[in-house]
Specification:
- This protein is α/β, with parallel strands linked by helices.
- The protein has 13 helices and 14 strands.
- The chain has a 6-stranded mixed sheet, sandwiched between helices. A 5-stranded mixed beta barrel has the order 2-3-4-6-5. A two-stranded antiparallel sheet has the order 7-8.
- Helix 7 crosses helix 13.
- The protein starts with a helix and ends with a helix.
- Bound molecules: guanosine-5'-diphosphate and zinc ion.
Length: 358
């Protein structure tokens, strides 16, 4: 499957160093991912609902908001309210997400969602709301944003403090899902020097853009990076996601908040995800209610594939299936690499933290 995001110049550095073996393992992991997701089966079970991208071409509408079977859909640059087509099983209503590409029909004058265009990418989480649905449907997957080509990982230099673990988590999630990561190091006006972790991310081929809504730094570059793409903004609350979006897309008018709680992570200001159109074929998915996503559906032995630095060192570990955790020190090149300063301890700690979540 080709993804436009991966064809862009700056992405190559991020992708090319993955070994063939890593890519094959990744494909297997993805195959499992979709297979174990009951949702994919639910969608597939309804004949004629999911249509191929080739068939639809550019003739699709984009879901901008989705709540309880009602959708705000962007059709030829205009917003339309739509419901799921009544000829379709109602269960599908919860399987349509912000960012989805759909084709519309109509029923008694009401626009309806008739087809779903096969998704290019999904950014998803485990459903936390335990309801009957969980038992009825095999799927515990909740899609946060569909069809995004890039993810802007927003962190702040200060207030709240910079958390490299958040970046590491999102680098795994984006890479696993075939989404290109871009790090926006916001509030750069509040510090005199960049955090040294940023240079390390650059060395891995990840684009890092220091930004500030106070002095405007990096905003044009960030905009150019996202142009022609469907991009999602992720980040803890209080880091400046809404401020950045407002600064780049003044007409979007997101509410901004202040960092007010003691955790320093900011307070919750908005909740539902939505898609903002800001230029031709250019969209931002804002996910204000999502503080952080868990890494899931990745095999423990596969996690290292999404830490390319660890993967490279780990090729020479004594055991093929070494997860660089409980294995003896003398047999593990990753543990030795940390000791020798070849791998930042912070990266290793992030890796172990995610490994234990799996
Ligand atoms: P969100 O929760 O990630 O959407 O964060 P907000 O956009 O609501 O911003 C949180 C706070 O940080 C607000 O008080 C903003 O004014 C402030 N802020 C956002 N961006 C910057 C920046 O680049 N520099 C500085 N100094 N403050 C910022
Ligand atoms: Zn090892």
């Amino acid at each position: 499957m080709t993804r436009t995001g991966q064809e862009k110049g700056h992405l190559e550095g991020w992708q090319w160093r993955q070994s063939k073996r890593a890519l094959e393992k990744k494909e297997r992991a993805k195959a499992r991912h979709f297979k174990s997701s009951g949702e994919a089966e639910t969608l597939a079970e309804v004949p004629d609902f999911v249509v191929s991208r080739e068939k639809v071409g550019r003739e699709y509408s984009i879901v901008a908001e989705a709540t309880a079977g009602r959708y705000k859909v962007l059709e030829h640059g205009q917003f339309t309210e739509a419901i799921l087509d009544p000829t379709l099983p109602f269960d599908l209503a919860r399987n349509i997400y912000v960012g989805d590409h759909v084709t519309l029909s109509s029923h008694e004058g009401q626009p309806t969602v008739r087809h779903l265009v096969a998704r290019k990418t999904v950014l998803s989480r485990l459903r936390r709301d335990a309801t009957r649905w969980r038992d009825i449907h095999a799927s515990n997957e909740q899609v946060i944003a569909a069809n995004v080509e890039s993810a802007v990982i927003v962190v702040s230099a200060k207030d709240p403090p910079f958390h490299p673990k958040f970046v590491d988590r999102y680098l795994v999630l984006t890479q696993f899902n075939g989404i290109t990561p871009v790090i926006a190091y916001n509030k750069s006006d509040l510090v005199s020097a960049e955090d040294q972790a940023l240079e390390y991310y650059r060395s891995m081929g990840v684009k890092v853009i220091p930004t500030s809504v106070v002095d405007g730094k990096g905003l044009a570059e960030l905009k150019e990076t996202m142009r022609g793409q469907q991009a999602v903004f992720v980040g803890h609350s209080g880091v400046g996601k809404s401020s950045l979006i407002n600064a780049m897309v003044p007409q979007s008018e997101l509410r901004t908040g202040t960092v007010s709680d003691k955790s320093g992570k900011g307070r919750h200001t908005t909740s539902a995800s939505r898609l903002i159109a800001w230029d031709k074929d250019s969209y931002i998915v804002d996910t204000p209610g999502i503080r952080s996503l868990e890494v899931w559906n990745i095999e423990k032995t596969d996690l290292q594939l999404y830490f390319k630095d660890i993967n490279e060192l780990g090729r020479d570990c004594k055991y093929d299936d070494c997860v660089h955790d409980a294995e003896p020190y003398q047999d593990c090149k990753v543990k030795q690499g940390v000791k020798q300063g070849l791998l930042p301890r912070q990266r290793y700690d992030s890796y172990l933290k995610l490994l234990r979540e799996l």
